[in-house]
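Narrative summary of target 7.
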Amino acid sequence: MSQAQVLYDLQQIDTEIRTKKQRLGEVLRLQKEPPALLAAREKAAAAEADLGRWRARHKDLTLEIATVADKAKRSEERLYSGVVKNPKELNDLQHEVEALGRRRATLEDEALQVMMTVDERQTISGAAATERDHLAEEFAASVVHLQAEQQTLALQLNRLLDKRKKQVPLAQPALLKVYDQLIQEKRGLAVAGLRANKCQGCQVTLSASTIRAAGQGQLVRCDSCDRILCPL
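Modeled conformation, tokenized:
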């Protein structure tokens, strides 16, 4: 086997390794929660917190209404009990009962408005939670497939790396240095196929002498792009 063929085969392995590594990096990146799901989680959390605040406000109003009602009941019982004889004290009790009644009515009106807001916020929170759960389920399903692909890629990379270890010793050390340098300079394509008198790296038609030398098994490089040529 010619050195050109050895390096060409090595390049095929390296190209596949590079492709698998790139895909593996993408697969790992895709297993992180996407922005849409993160945003949905924040939206659902904010909606739930908002709903909690309105529920807490309704609870506070309910407790305050009960407190006012209890106080009004006790004042009214004292007013009509016959125990209080002093006209001024009776008048004060009457005003207190009336004031407590007005306060209770105000609180009940507010509680009704708050309850309507709670219902509205509950709908919003439910919708946000549904959206979050839908995106979370989709993401979880995709992760299952991604993890399976990750395992497959890892196994493939291990096999390719083993294959590379066996291929490298077949190349002359000096040519390996040239190969590594060209890999960097030529964006991963150090060895170009030679087919139909053309370099498959740059598509330039080669000189007769270059084609002849390559056909004879000599290590030659493209007249145009300087890549190593391997007859295909």
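The chain has two domains: 1-30+172-232, 31-168.
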